Structures are given as structure tokens and as C-alpha cells.
Hints:
This protein is of the alpha/beta class. Helix 8 runs parallel beside helix 9. The radius of gyration is 48 Å and the shape is elongated.
Amino acid sequence: MPSASFSSTRSYTRRTRRKGTNRLPIPSRTSNSGGVVEAGVTCEPLVAASGSYATPGGASTSTSFQHVPPYDLRGRKSPLHLHDASTAGFNATAPVHPTATRPTSPTASATASVLQSAATPPLSQPARKRLRRNTSCTITSSDNSNSAAHYLQCELPDEVMLTIFSYLYEQDLCRIAQVCKRFQAIANDNNLWKRLYQSVFEYDTPLFHTENCRFDFIPFEESEHHNPWKESFRQLKKRCLHVRPHYNGTAKDPVRKMPHFETIQASLDYADEHLNGGAKIFLHPGTYRGEFLVIDSDVTLIGAAPGVVADAVILERDSESTVMFVEGAKSAYLGHVTLKFTPNVTSTVPHHKHFCLEVGENCSPTIDHCIIRSSSVVGAAVCVSGAGANPRIHHCDVSDCENVGIYVTDHAQGTFEDNEICRNALAGVWVKNHANPVMRRNHIHHGRDVGIFTFDNGLGFFEANDIHNNRIAGFEVKAGANPSVVQCEIHHGQTGGIYVHENGLGQFIDNRIHSNNFAGVWITSNSNPTIRRNDIYNGHQGGVYIFGEGRGLIEHNNIYGNALAGIQIRTNSDPIVRHNKIHHGQHGGIYVHEKGAGLVEENEVYANTLAGVWITTGSTPVLRRNRIHSGKQVGVYFYDNGHGKLEDNDIFNHLYSGVQIRTGSNPIIKGNKIWGGQNGGVLVYNGGLGVLEQNEIFDNAMAGVWIKTDSNPTLKRNKIYDGRDGGICIFNGGKGNLEENEIFRNAQAGVLISTQSHPTLRRNRIFDGLAAGVEITNNATATLDSNQIFNNRFGGLCLASGVQPVVRCNKIYSNQDAVEKAVCNGQCLYKISSYTSFPMHDFYRCQTCNTTDRNAICVNCIKTCHAGHDVEFIRHDRFFCDCGAGTLNNQCQLQGEPTQDTDTLYDSAAPIESHTLMVN
């Protein structure tokens, strides 16, 4: 019988029957499967396979027998229809292991012969028109031959049929499936095909060739095919060759006529000579050493073994490259093998340009599910170089190499997806010289150097990679490189997360950068990357660190929980920091120092442990339209010659002052809202300067503006109001030029000047205060020129004893003079002051009651409560009455029950300074 084909056509030539009989004589034939068809055996045509046969007179004769199978096959999924099998491409010879043998006992041979006789009528007679098919078993004679065929076709138990079919090859099974529906169901048994499949390909799981250069293992239970083993056999069989180590010479399977080879190169040569490209070469278990494979055609090389395939199929070489793809390999495929490059380190043969896997110009192979190892201390495990080099490297393991893992250079491209790249001695990935790969979903970790290194104008698109636990940065950009890095996770680096330096560029977007030992992002030496929409958090140092004249656009990031500043700018760096959230840092929010600059705008800086923004040591940033709030210390802190501009910001709810300026710092603070502080609004001290212009400073727990210790700021056109203490307090030699400000509705004095201070107040409006308008005390002085002071509760201008300010052209009017009214009404001044306000009036002490200068007594208590005592006038000054407060031994007769003891406070509470410098 001719070799059976996987193409099962149902139309075949029928012999002309003899008149008066339906029987078709079957000549003696030899089966390809090893059986022999005995002479004289005849079998009636089977309606299920080929329909009824007409007699020469035109009549058809048939007799039906109904078969009841010993177990129900109807529950099975319907097998492929014969026509479906034909159109599905069963038209190739199927391979098998060359050592596989079939039983050749007489019984098996005869059975196989009868089966083939039933399946394949003689081909010498002319064909007649096929009549309508019937699904039942039909015979037209009752002689012994027909009875044997009928018994075999319809009565023999399924278990026996399965045993018989197990002796057949795939060609025979496809032919047998044409006989009848019963044979078709049995011949499509999964176990039959699994045994055949594994004898040829050795896989534990069906492998599907779903599209060009794509092979997928799909578990039996997940397959959409009724018989996945058969379908996989069909997909893999065409144009396939097999390579088996220690196989003696080139041969073919005697049944399947399938070439086998001992070396890979021999199979490649055969494919080039006989198959004209497109061959599938299956590499069976073993170690293939010494072959230098240069692939220049669209060949498929794929491992074939049980278990983890790549572990069993190893290609190894110790010089040049293990596998090289060159021009012509446009759709080549290499999969499920291990590649090793193991040069002898003592060898004198140079190998600095040799690699384990090399992809050259103008080729685009697919490398899939390979394990790649190189023990070379130079070069790289994988090298992709040259224009037009565009491989697809998927699901590979490039690990434990003694140099670089993957090296892409010289305008090469490529798609690298779902690879494991780890524990390499140098970078996991190098990209340089205008190379532009696409890398997605790779796992790059525990390298002894950097994770990914782009330099010398390297490009690349890096998406959804997991980069962690590398000894140096997770991602490094240098020397004009400009990668795009999106949706990656860069974390637990032993140094930093991202390092951009020496004119590096790059776009880093939507990444998670966290838990690195140093800064999450470093930018230095004139580099200018874009850092956008990243989560940068839990760093063991800072979030973003810009130094050494670095630049960059830092925008829309969420920066939080870092041990040092969320963003640090220093040494002439000048970035743009915009629309970020910088919060819950264990240190400060933004730290600008050592002549740092930059535009910092529209960020939200909040809930940081130290200052929201620090500006120091000659730095000049511009902060514009930021919301800086809810910090545990200062909002914005200028010190040690910190300069810059603070403009249109909203600064509120800080534990310390909203803004502090000290030690030579001279910022421009304009158009801000500074409010809700649990301390003061603005504190200028220790020689601080600055211009505060057009700000709104309100609702602070202490003074709106404090000026002290030789500081000399300029305040112009500010609104300072609704303070829970004074408006502006100037102490300890403070100066300042206050012009055209509106100071109103503050709980204590609108302006309090004390202790050798000497400010200038010009054209201010001070009104609606809950205490005095302007108070000058304790040897201070001032120049008051053209101010309006009106509608203040305790009076307009209140001067302590010995104070002689310069007063010109001021308008002081409509003040309530509540102190004088209380004195005239015989009230204790404590009644109108309590512990929070300090009215200015005559200050007495009682020698009889042994009070000190710290215990002040108002004039009415002296007259009433201390009548007949030895009393002494001290001075005209601001105080509250200790007698009325109940802190003296004698109970005040003008007040009610005594209250808790306290000392007279001459000034507002002392400002609380930031501890920023203590930890800097």
C-alpha cells in the first residue's frame, strides 16, 4: 500500500464491480506499518466510510447491522470530521524516534491488513457517483470475509480496537478514521496520539506552532482542541528534522521517512540543500559542543525533551560565539535550549568581541525560552549590534554571567520581553551608540553592578520592568543617552534607584521608585531628564537629589516617606520642580543649598517632619504657587545667606513659623498667604533680611511677623490680620522698614516695639486691634511717619516710660481707650486683660506684700487692695495685674476667686526656633 498521507480525502477511484455481486476483491498488499494483507480476503464497502455502492445495473444493495459498543463513546467530544482533517493540513509525514519498533506478529499484521483493506478500496476501477451516506454499518453478503470485516468493524470491543490501533502509525490512524464513525472516534483517542507524539517529540505537554516564530506549550486541560496531541503533531510535522547526539550518521525513519542527524550543522546543511528554508529542526537531549553555528536563513531550532526542555538541550562553545545570527535570518527561531559560552581563561585565543549569542546586522530572529550563560570576563552574554539588527528575545534567562548580560549597540533595535536577567558581574543591560531596543516586563535584579546602563547616545523604550537589588543604581543614564522608562518598578538598590549624569537625558514616567539605600533619583553634571508621574518613596536617603549643575523637569510625582529631603537641589543645579506632592518625609520636603537654584512651582508640600522647604548657603530658587502646609516644624526656612523668591504660595498650619529668615538670608517674599500657624507667621531673626511684599498673614497663634536680634527686613503693602497675638512684634535690637501695610484685628498690639529695637513705620494703617495700635517699650524707639492708627481697643500709640520715638504726621483717632475707661471706673485692669492682653498703664509694686518687679499691680488695686501699704511706682508700661490675677498672698478685692499663679509677661511669648540645623 502506498505510504498513507495525513491528507484524508474521501473521494477515491472505485473498481467496477462484477455483475450480480457487491464484493470488491482485495489484492495481496504489504502495509507500511509492517503488516501483510493476505491474498483472497475481501471486505464489503463501508457506507460510513464511502457510501453505498451501486451495481452495474444501477441498483444498490445493502444490509445494515446496528452496533452497540461495550462502553459509551458518544460522551466524547466529536472528533474532527474527515473533511476538517483534510483541510486542517494533515498532509505531511509524521516523525518518530528511529529506534521505535512496531510488533510484527501474524495476528497484528493480519488485523492491520484487514483494517487497511476496509479503509482503502482498490484504486484500479473507474469511480462511480457517490450515493447518499448512511451512518450505520452495512454489508451486502454473508460470506466469511464479509462476516470478518463486519465483526472487526462493528462487533469487536473498543478496548480491543484501541489495542490494535496502538500498533499503527499516525498515517494509518488517519486512514482508519475514514472507515466509519466508530473507527474515527477510536482512532482519535488522546492516549494513542500522546504515545505517538512523545515517541517523536518527547514533550510532556503539547507544543503548538500558533503563528510564525511562535511556539506555546498549552496543557491538555487548557487546550481548545478535542485531541491536542494530534493537533500539535499536525502543526509540528511539516518540514521537520531531528538532531540526536551520538546518532550514527544521517538517516530517515523507515516508515515516516524523517531525516535524523547527529550534529546541528548537518541538519542546517540538509535544510539549506533540500528544504529551501523554513525547516523545523528539533534538538533532542544532550550537550552539543564545539559547533560554531552561523544562522543565515529562516530556520527553526527548538529543543525537544521531556521536563524543562532547556535544561536537557545544551549548546556550548569555548571560543568565538556559541550561536550567531546574520543577514538572511529574518524569521529564524531559536527556542528552549541552553546556550553556554565558556572560554578557557588561561587560553591565549582572544575573545573580547565574542559572545554567547550574537545578532548581527539586518536580521530579526526570535529567541524564546532559552537559558544563556557566559563565563567570559569580557564581552557580554548577548550582543545585538548593527543597523537592522532587530531580534525578539522573550522568556529567556540571562543570569550568572561574568560580564554584561545583554548588550545592544550601534543603531540596533530589538524587542526583549519577559526575560530573567540577574546576578551578572556587570550591568544586566547595556544600551549605547544610538541603539533603540524595546524592553518590557523583564526581571533585572541582584546584579553586581548597575541594572540597566544607557550611555553614549543610547536610546530605548523600557516598560513594566522589575529592577531591584542591584549593587549600583537600578537604572543609569550617561553621556547623551535618552531612554524612555515607563511603568517600571525600581527598588531596593544597594545605592540609588535612577542615576542620570554627564549630560544624560531620558524620560522616566509612571514608575515606582522606592526603598533604595541612597536617593531614589540622582541628577548631576548638566543632565536634563524628565521625571514625571512617578511614586518615589521610602528611600533610605532622599527622594530626588539634583547636584553638580544638574537640571531636569520634575513634575507630577508623588514623593513621600523618604529618610532625607523629598527633593534636594545643590551646587548650582537648576531644575524645574512642578506639580509634585512631597509629603510625610522623615526629614524635610525640599532642601536647596550650596548655591542651588530652580523653579519650584505648584507643588503640594505637607506633613514633613522638618521644614517644608529649606533654602540656605547662597541658594536662589523661585518658589511660586505652592501649597506648603501641615509641617511639624517650619513652612519655608531661609538661613545662612539663603535667598530666592517666594511668590504666591499658600503656607499654613505649621507647628512652628510659616516662614523663618535668619543669618544674612535675603529672600523676596511676595503675594503669599501665610496663615494658621501654631506659632508665628513670619520670623526674621539673627541678622535676617528680606523683602515681604503684598502678603496676607493671618490667623497665626502668635505674632504675624516677628523681627528680632539685629534683623532688618522690609515689609511693604502686606495685610497682617486676625492674629491670635500681635500683628508685628520687634524685639532685641530688631529693625525693619514697614511701609503701607494694613495691620488689623489682631488680639494684641498691632505693632509692638521692645528692647533696643528701632524700626521705621511709614504710611501704615493700624486699626481694629483688640489691644493697642502701636506700643513702644523697654528702651526701644522708632520712627513713625504718616501712619493712620484708629479704632484700637486699648488706645492708638502707647509709650512706656523713657521712650522717645520720632513721630511725624501720624493720624491717631477714634481709638476706644478701654484702659483709661477701666481706671476711671475703678476696675482692676486684669478685668480687661486676663492672661492674654497686656494693657499699658502705671505699673506699681507693694513693698509691704514683698512683691517684685515681676509682680505688677494696677493703680486701682494699689488704692483698694493695698491701701495703707508701702507701695512704689515703677514705670508706665504694658502688663497685666498680678493682684487681679490672684497670684499674690492678699486676695484682690476688685476681682473674684484667685486664679493660677503666673509671672507678668512683658512681651509676647518668645518665638520657638526650628531644630532644622541640629539635624542638618
